[in-house]
């Protein structure tokens, strides 16, 4: 058995190297393009730049207004993650702890809701949001994100709650604790990795989302980074060096966040049992 395991390791390492190259090589090409002139990109897109033009990042930052775009994206992503954590946490707690009639129907509803494409509801949503004053409003966009990301987050947090013994909650209720105290003091400390994972997934999805953002936000001062980058690209003729630099500026915060929270994110996601 030991020999078989040793024999399989080179093949496993080869697969990991291929996957790493698949993820890293495009980013390296993207970085090299951001440090070139447009002429160098058209002549040889895969070669090293003759001179590293770091000033491209400063130009892209100012011309694409990436500072304001990143601020809007941060506000939207953090609000989405926090809202989804609260909504999904309460919904998952109700699904696992309350005596609901036919709970399987609720779970089926969440599965269907998380799989339906948002394009089906785009036109009625646009009409409704215009009538109630939420069109071209960041809060209106955040509400939509809460609705489309909460079903999956509810299923994710539910898997953590199923592993929490109910005896802890029963003991707290015997001591006079109410439902809010039981959830915040007893249950939440046990399931916070799942809540954090759900919030991170929802926040990153909101940060990268484009279709809803470009549809529901028109004011240039409210544009998230994804739409600001698109507008910048459309406005050039195009200068792919500056577009690449602006794209890297948008990717950098997510990359740093994932590196910092990588361990918590992976542990929370894998321990939920939803990875297959």
From TrEMBL:
The keyword Transmembrane helix is annotated on this UniProt entry: yes
This protein's GO CC annotations: plasma membrane
Transmembrane segments: 12-35, 74-95, 107-127, 139-161, 182-207, 240-261
Gene3D superfamilies: MetI-like
Ranges for domain ABC transmembrane type-1: 70-261
Protein name: ABC transporter permease
Membrane-related topology note: Multi-pass membrane protein
Organism, scientific name: Streptomyces shenzhenensis
Biological process terms in GO annotation: transmembrane transport
Family: Belongs to the binding-protein-dependent transport system permease family.
One Pfam entry name: BPD_transp_1
UniProt xrefs under InterPro entries: MetI-like, MetI-like_sf
Location(s), subcellular: Cell membrane
Coiled-coil zones: none
Keywords: Cell membrane, Membrane, Transmembrane, Transmembrane helix, Transport
């Amino acid at each position: 058995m030991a020999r078989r395991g040793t024999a399989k390791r080179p093949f496993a390492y080869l697969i990991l190297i291929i996957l790493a190259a698949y993820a890293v090589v495009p980013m390296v090409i993207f970085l090299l393009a951001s440090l070139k002139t447009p002429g160098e990109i058209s002549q040889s897109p895969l070669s090293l730049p003759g001179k590293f033009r770091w000033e491209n990042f400063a130009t892209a930052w100012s011309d694409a207004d990436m500072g304001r775009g990143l601020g809007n994206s941060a506000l939207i992503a953090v609000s989405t993650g926090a809202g989804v954590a609260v909504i999904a946490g309460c919904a998952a707690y109700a699904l696992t702890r309350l005596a609901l009639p036919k709970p399987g129907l609720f779970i089926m509803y969440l599965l269907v809701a998380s799989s339906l494409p948002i394009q089906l509801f785009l036109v009625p949503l646009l009409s409704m949001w215009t009538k109630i004053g939420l069109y071209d409003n960041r809060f209106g966009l955040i509400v939509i994100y809460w609705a489309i990301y909460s079903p999956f987050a509810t299923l994710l947090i539910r898997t953590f709650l199923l592993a929490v013994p109910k005896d802890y909650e029963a003991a707290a209720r015997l001591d006079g604790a109410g439902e809010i105290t039981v959830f915040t003091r007893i249950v939440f400390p046990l399931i916070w990795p799942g809540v954090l994972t759900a919030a991170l997934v929802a926040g990153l999805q909101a940060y990268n989302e484009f279709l809803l953002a470009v549809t529901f936000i028109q004011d240039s001062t409210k544009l998230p980074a994804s739409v600001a980058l698109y507008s910048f690209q459309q406005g050039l003729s195009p200068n792919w060096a500056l577009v690449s630099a602006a794209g890297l500026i948008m990717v950098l915060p997510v990359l740093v966040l994932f590196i910092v929270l990588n361990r918590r994110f992976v542990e929370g996601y894998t321990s939920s049992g939803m990875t297959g």
